[in-house]
Amino acid sequence: MTELPTTGFVGDPPGVAESIVVRVASAGDLLAVPAVEEAADRLFRDRGVRDLPPAAPAAARAEAWRVLVAGRPVQGFAVLERVDGDAHLEQLSVHPAAMRQGIGAALLRASVSLAWAVGARRVSLLTYADVPWNAPWYARHGWRVTDDLGPGLRALAESAVERDLGRHGRRVAMVRPVRDPG
């Protein structure tokens, strides 16, 4: 089991729980991820988004570049891919019963730490601009909206358009440098 650092990042907001252990998912952890995703997706359903795809099965998550998890049993996870030589946060979900405890923030910090360890210059993501727990939340954790899209990130953004994800709200690309320029 590989634990990742989740503290000591310039610009991290104060008061975030630093005792949360984030680790690379084991095969057993991956089995728990779909239930966390399904529970987290209920928040979108509560906003009227009723046509979400089902949670990805554990086997599909095992194909990701890295899946990070927090909690025993798993309470949150982050799916990371390599895109344009950088790290890309494909998905981050926290079980609603475990929200507001710093798990999401710890997963973000671990994602940045992992990106730094492999020499990436930034972590990217695609998200909804106006959903409170999407772009506004990421912005509070150091991510900034960007139009600096490499070919891989541009292809992911175009795929989201093709899948009509914009029908649920405006989508944006966001990035966070792995080293804060300050």
TrEMBL record:
Protein's name in the database: Acetyltransferase (GNAT) family protein
Ranges where the N-acetyltransferase domain occurs: 20-179
GO molecular function, one term: acyltransferase activity, transferring groups other than amino-acyl groups
PROSITE patterns noted in UniProt: GNAT
Classification of source organism: Bacteria, Bacillati, Actinomycetota, Actinomycetes, Geodermatophilales
UniProt keyword annotations, A-Z: Acyltransferase, Transferase
InterPro entries per the UniProt record, alphabetical: Acyl_CoA_acyltransferase, GNAT_dom
